[in-house]
Amino acid sequence: MLVLRILIGLGLAYLGLLLLAWLFQDRLAFPAPRAKLPDPKRVGVENGERVELVSADGTKLVGWYLAPKKLEVEGGRGRLGEVGAVRNHLPKPPPTSPASPGLLWFYGNGETVAAIWPVVREFQPPGTAVLVLDYPGYGGSGGRATEDALYAAADAAYAALTARPDVDPRRIYVYGRSLGSAVATYTATHHPVAGLILESPFTNAAAMAKYHYGLLPRFLLRLSLDNVANVRRVSCPILLFHGDADRLVPTAMGMAVAAAAAGPVEVVLIHGAGHNDTYDIGGRSYRDKMWQFIGRTVP
């Protein structure tokens, strides 16, 4: 009798776990931290401006637009905060180009513009405009974070960047890290892009759920976030970074995304990097590789 009660209790607990997983999977995938959007000028980003957009579902979004800036010959950085020499072979924007390339930046699931703006400023390619938005429910943006809401925000960001008079709509690049990789590959499948940069991409939501929550049945999952399906439809060049010590999103997932791509792919493994220290460990080499990719893939 006692064994039967234990089994019934375990069964009820498991059913309760399934119910919670069904109800709160959006919160697990999109933790949506809140943070006030800083004023770029007040934090020393002179080429930055605060932007406000409205997505197709009416959600108010906020973020930063960084105007194109020239490459400084006498300065630069190694790891974030370390001063070093900038290599002369880095790409420079064509002097006769009437407009500059544009880069859409999609961050990871626990980040906000307030948290990652120093990295965005540090990694902004020379002569390239950058637009980074807080996702719905994140940072200073309104709304609620869902997969569809993130994609609607991406559409709004793409439209806003291509409408800028100083941006060449034929030279739009998309960068996505971790969760942002799914937003980036979505954007590349729905809009013309010149190049796609992925950092620590996972294959899809189902594979991530199986990897982290193996006891939960797949039929509960409502999310797709399918990078593999998306890159199969992308023919533009792809640059893919992944830490070879990443335990949150296994390196094998990044390699599977690379293998599925329809177009040319260059993979850069960041040795010794986990999931959240790729910028620090990759440092200037990471940044320079990204800059070179954007300089070399001009259509």
How would the blueprint of this fold be written?
Blueprint: H1 2-29, E1 48-54, E2 60-66, E3 100-106, H2 113-123, E4 129-133, H3 147-162, E5 167-177, H4 179-190, E6 195-199, H5 205-212, H6 227-231, E7 238-243, H7 251-260, E8 265-270, H8 278-296
Parallel strand pairs: 3-4, 3-5, 5-6, 6-7, 7-8
Antiparallel strand pairs: 1-2, 2-4
Structure in words:
It is globular, with a radius of gyration of 20 Å. The chain has helices at residues 2-29, 113-123, 147-162, 179-190, 205-212, 227-231, 251-260, 278-296, and strands spanning 48-54, 60-66, 100-106, 129-133, 167-177, 195-199, 238-243, 265-270. The chain has an eight-stranded mixed β-sheet with strand order 1-2-4-3-5-6-7-8, sandwiched between helices. 36% of the residues lie in helices and 18% in strands. Residues 10-20 and 73-88 have low confidence and may be disordered. Helix 4 (179-190) links the parallel strand 5 (167-177) and strand 6 (195-199). It has eight helices and eight strands, in the order αβββαβαβαβααβαβα. With 299 residues, it is α/β, with parallel strands linked by helices.
